[in-house]
Amino acid sequence: MNNPIREALSSGRRLFGTHINLTDSRVCEMVGMLGFDYIWIDMEHISTDFRVMESHLIAAKAAGTPTMVRVTWNDIPNIKRVLEAGPDAIVVPMVNSVEEAKRAIDTCIYPPEGKRGFGPCRALRYGIDSVTDYIDHGHKELCRFLQVETKDAVEAMDEIAQIPYVDGFIIGPMDMSGSVGELGHALEGKETNRLIELAVQKAHALGKPIGLSTGADNAAELGHWMSKGIDFISASTDMWSIISGARTLLGRMKEVSEQYPPFK
Fold it and tell me: Is residue 262, in this structure, part of any structural domain at all?
């Protein structure tokens, strides 16, 4: 029941992932075959429902790539069913206080330490694995990441990190910029970058890995974020990779076509 994401982060190297937003599980499987350290399956901003999410988990497993699932919100119904499906990591968005962090973690851990209701399915390999082992150890192997996306969240990190079973943090730079009046200017926003640098410093001082989620795929922006000491970065999306690849192909076709004028 060892968690590949936990082990990879413990190795000290930076991890690379990408976001899956489309609903066809074959997309997840194809991307999973490329060598990413993990695949981020999004449920917060996209139409991905539970059935689609579970299909993505199965596809990623077939491709041999670990998974993170970002749930729609920090509440029991949204978190519990995802846990039962057995991802390697769960991402809870918009955690802005110690109370909100405790609620997220409580939902992930069985009593007496937490408040998770019992009913794992795929997480228990449909009952093939030992229930006792899963209760005692298995469910704790899940990586639990909390998204810090506001100034309040960064200020609360020191206390949040003291909560048992908080495995790390993830920065959302766009929402971070919005929380300080710089929405859409995450790269150049002075306060946004100050908070992100502070969040990274705090996480490392507290012994927690910290990731960042961005839709960007260009070297300059990725380098900007990596230079701040990010431990794992989720970049671009399947949708943008298709658009970008198709745009590059069209440009290449037009460029080659200029060498071979059409017959009149």
Answer: no
The CATH number for 204's domain is 3.20.20.60
- pTM for the complete prediction? 0.95
Domain tally, the chain: 1
Sign of CA dihedral 160, 166, 169, 174: negative
Place of tokens 């909390």: 146
110-135: b (≥16 Cβ within 10 Å) or e: beeebebeeebeebbeeeeeeeeebe
- Tell which residue, 43, 147, 48, 58, has the closest CA to residue 101: 147
| Amino acid, res. 164 | P
* pLDDT tens per residue, range 148-184: 999 999 999 999 999 999 999 999 999 999 999 999 9
Q: Which domain holds residue 74?
A: 4-257
40 strand-pairing partners = 19, 68
How far apart, in Å, are the Cα atoms of 244 and each of 218, 222, 240, 251? 11, 16, 6, 11
Q: What is the dihedral of CA 108, 114, 119, 121, to 10 degrees?
A: 30
Both structure tokens of 82: 């995802």
